[in-house]
Structures are given as structure tokens and as C-alpha cells.
Amino acid sequence: MTLIKELKIKKQPKQGMLENVLKQFNTAADLVNLNPNIKKILEVTNNELIIHFPVRMDNGNVEIFKGYRVQHNNALGPYKGGLRYHPTIDIDSVKALAMWMTWKTSLAGLPYGGAKGGIQMDPNKYSTSELERITRRFTYALGENIGPEHDIPAPDVNTNAQTMAWIADTYMSTKSPSERSKNQHVVTGKPIGSGGLEGRDRATGYGVYLTIKFWAKNKKIDLKDKTFIVQGFGNVGYWAAHFLELEGAKMVGVQDAFGSIINKDGIPVELLYEYIKTNNGSIVDYPNSNAILKEDFFSLDCDICIPAALGNQITEENAHKVKAFLIAEGANGPTTVEAEKILLDRGIEIIPDILCNSGGVIGSYFEWLQNRNGELWELEEILIKLEKKLNDVFKKVLQASVTKRIDLRSAAYFIAIERIEKAYIQRGIFP
Ligand code: NAD
After folding, report:
1. Which helix (H) or strand (E) element contains residue 71?
2. What is the CATH T-level fold of the domain 46-192, as seen in this structure?
3. Which of 9, 155, 169, 288 registers the highest number of CB atoms within 10 A of its CB?
4. Where do the domains of the chain lie?
5. Burial of residue 8, with CB atoms counted within 10 A of its CB: 0-12 exposed, 13-18 middle, 19 or more buried
6. DSSP label of 234
7. Candidate of 6, 88, 160, 256 to mutate for ligand 1, largest count of ligand atoms within 8 Å of Cβ
8. Are 149 and 79 within 8 A, CB to CB?
9. Could you give the CA distance from residue 260 to residue 234 in angstroms, rounded to a whole number?
10. Which are the catalytic amino acids?
11. How many helices (H) and strands (E) does the chain have?
12. Measured on CA atoms in the order 305, 204, 417, 32, is the torsion positive or negative?
């Protein structure tokens, strides 16, 4: 949520997210009976950029950084997807995340394709001015590989509105004076006052909450007094928890990069949020809570589990211990294909990432439109528009799931891939 001074980030095991997204895609492609030629196009990425760039550190030394931008597909419109600053970023994880963006924007019916990028680093090791120079130099190195009508980055793990403001300013500064303001929508998730959208900060977490609400309504389940756990108390995890608590649900467990805490009587979301601001962004040692082992987190007693941190967190090893009846995927790719099978067999439902966290990219689309048209939208109308859009998408996924007797992820993929296939069939393959 902030460029938080996290105490340390443990190196994650090799994530294998690419394998995961390809397995999901292949299953869906068979289901849709996808045209084999179009399948060949979609199982690879259009462009992959790896950039090594130098940055001067505060102590005068120069450090070399490795940045990535992968553009998976743009059949439906400009590439769109976040930038992540994290030590586990590598070409395969960025390819996987870019593919998920293609399915997500297609499912939401947006005029976008899919991309993702980031820098392989632990941002907590750098001062704010170093982070600014790293971001600006990376933006400069990306050059015309990004652009407001070509490829539009947004925040992701360890990047935020400030990061986007630096990118927008750097990119616009490379244009002639009369062209600068036309390029403001080169990124979304900017601060309000620099072209940002009211409510973009909460759009993803609000969307996570809304999809839980739609799901519960369909099942005739009252969210009041239901318990939930959240992995990742950053932008997505915090806002999802904030809105669920307003609905009367109770947060009983939280995990972040530093530790895991529980309290079966409830952890007040706003108090924890205030606490982390005074604790270097960490939830550790929050009063009125007990610490538990990291590996015990997903087996906590609760009704709803919200993974909102990194990929491949719910795996074959822990899926059989999950107690929640619903998993709402705030993060991208938090559940492996093998874990999903175990969960579905156990009757645990999953709101898939490409639906559950799509409030973020829908909010980004609103910001992009606002900048492009020189408009300023108000928070209330934005939240109403977001709810309507997500509700429409949710209903379509639910309907496909019921009529085709498939789980929610397969239904979401079905709709997303069919839309892209249709565009290719209409246009053909050049030349
Ligand atoms: P963030 O940087 O704001 O927060 C990340 C949180 O995850 C922090 O609390 C951090 O401590 C925690 N975390 C990091 N490593 C962890 C680990 N190993 N175990 C447990 N917790 C860990 O990031 P965010 O923007 O909230 O993104 C979270 C997830 O949501 C990512 O998967 C991202 O791709 C996805 N997502 C974000 C957006 C968005 O708009 N920000 C949109 C769609 C999807």
C-alpha cells in the first residue's frame, strides 16, 4: 500500500505461476473448444522486455537493476497491467501475471489487453529518493514501450500512487511541451490531484468485497458475524477487510510479510491499519492478538479466506486444511491448480482472481477515460459504476457456471477466452 519500510521480505520458493496459468488456460481452451490457431497465439506472449539499468545510490555508488515488461496480448485494446517491485519477480512470473491480465480485462469487457512488469528488488532496502530515481530511470528505459494508447501500467505489490506519479511525470517530461498533458493516462492509479481517480485506492479491495457480497447473496448467506482471514494487509487486503467489517463480518486472522496474528474475538480493521503505520508497515506484535506460525495460517477457523498477497500460497500442502467455505482471491494466482482440485472436491468455493480482484482494473479504466476526456468524476458515481459493472460480470460468470455445470474459474475463463477468440475470428491474422 505504501512503499513500506518492511523489516525484511523472505525470498519465496520458486513460484511456478507460469505453469499454473498455462494449466488453467489449457483446461479452459478445451472447454471452449478454442480454435487451435488462436490457442497458439494466446499461449505465448507478444513481447518480453528485460532491461538492465543503472541508478546512482545515495552514497554515490551506482547499482544495476533488472526491470521487466511483458505484453501478453492486445487483441482487445492497449496492454494493461501493474508494476511490481519484489525480489521474486522474474521473467516467468511476469509472463504469468501478464496472461492473467489478458483474461481479466477480457472478462470485464474492457477495451484492453494484458501486460505486467516490475523490478527485481526489495524496495525496503532503498530510501524514498533512491526509489524515485529507480522508478524514473526505469520509466525512461521503457521509453515508447509504454504509452497511453499502447501499454498502461498501474500499481501492484510494493508500488503505489506515488510510484505512478513519478512514472507519469517522467514519461510526460520526455514529450514536447504541447504534447505533455495528452499523455497523463500513460499510467493509472495516480494520486488525486495528478489525474488520479477518486476511489482508485480502494477499487480492488472494494471489488473483492462486492464479489463476496454477490456470492453470499446468491447463496442466501448473511455476511453479518461471518469470520474472515486476510493474507496481505496492503492495498487490496486492507480495503477488502474494511468493507467486510462494515458489513458486520469479523476479521480473526491476518498475515503479512513479517508475521501472522489471530484473535477469535476479532481484530478491528481500522485499529490494525493505524497500528501498522507506526510499526514500519508490519502487523507484528499488534496488541490483543496472538502470533501463530506462518504455515498454520490457512488452516485457521473462519468462514471466508482472502489471499491478498502473492501467488501460489494455497497449495497441495495446505489445501486439505482450509476451514473456510469460501476463498476470495484478492491476489493474482494465489491458488495452485492442484490445490483448487482439492478445495473443489471438499466443497469449498473459489471466487477466481480474474473476477474477484477485477475492481482494480475497472477503476483504472475509469481513470483512463477520465484523463482521456478531460473529465473529473465524483467518488459516489464511481463506486456506483464499479458496483454495476462488477455485478454484471459476476452474473455472467454465475450463469455460465450454472448452465455449463462448471466451477466459477472455468466459467470466468470461458467468457474471457471466447471474447478474444471472437475478435481474432472477426479480424483474421495479418497478412
Ligand atoms: P501491497 O504491496 O499494497 O501489499 C502487499 C501485502 O502483502 C503487504 O501487507 C505485504 O506485507 C504482504 N506480503 C508480502 N509478501 C508476503 C508473504 N510472503 N506472505 C504474506 N504476506 C505477504 O500490494 P497490493 O497492491 O495489495 O497487492 C496484493 C495482491 O493483489 C497482489 O497479488 C496483486 O497482484 C493483487 N492485485 C492488486 C491490485 C491493485 O490494484 N493494487 C489489483 C489487482 C490485483
Report:
1. strand 62-73
2. Rossmann fold (3.40.50)
3. 155
4. 46-192, 197-431
5. exposed
6. S
7. 256
8. no
9. 14
10. 116
11. 13, 12
12. positive
Q: What is the pTM of this model?
A: 0.95
Tell me: pLDDT of 1 over 70.
no
Evaluate whether 309 touches 329 at the Cβ level (below 8 Å).
Answer: no
- Give the residue-averaged pLDDT of 324-339: 97
197-431 CATH: 3.40.50.720
Kindly state if the Cβ of 231 falls inside 6 Å of ligand 1. Answer: yes
197-431 matches 46-192 in CATH topology? yes
pLDDT for res 6: 39
- 416/28 Cα distance (integer angstroms): 10
Mean pLDDT for the stretch of residues 145-172: 98
**Residue 100 Cβ < 6 Å to ligand 1:** no
Over residues 104-125, the pLDDT tens digits come to 999 999 999 999 999 999 999 9
Neighbours of 12 (CB within 10 A): 15
Nearest to 365 by CA among 112, 107, 1: 112
| Distance set, CA 124 to CA 4, 9, 158, 293, 395 (Å) | 7, 8, 9, 23, 41
Tell me the three cell numbers of residue 111. Answer: 477495451
Residue 364, ligand 1, Cβ within 6 A:
no
Q: What 8-state DSSP symbol labels residue 61?
A: -
- What whole-number distance in Å separates Cα of residue 309 and Cα of residue 336? 14
User: Which ligand 1 atom is the nearest neighbour of the CA of 237?
Assistant: 26
Q: Please state whether 60 falls in left (phi above 0), alpha (psi between -120 and 50) or beta.
A: left
Best residue among 83, 310, 355 to mutate for probing ligand 1, ranked by most atoms within 8 Å of CB = 310
Percent of the chain with pLDDT over 70: 97
What confidence score (pLDDT) does residue 221 get? Answer: 98
Closest CA to 154 of 170, 172, 168: 168
C-alpha–C-alpha distance, residues 312 and 334, integer Å: 5
Which contiguous run of DSSP H or E holds residue 22?
helix 17-32
376 vs 255: CA distance, rounded Å? 37
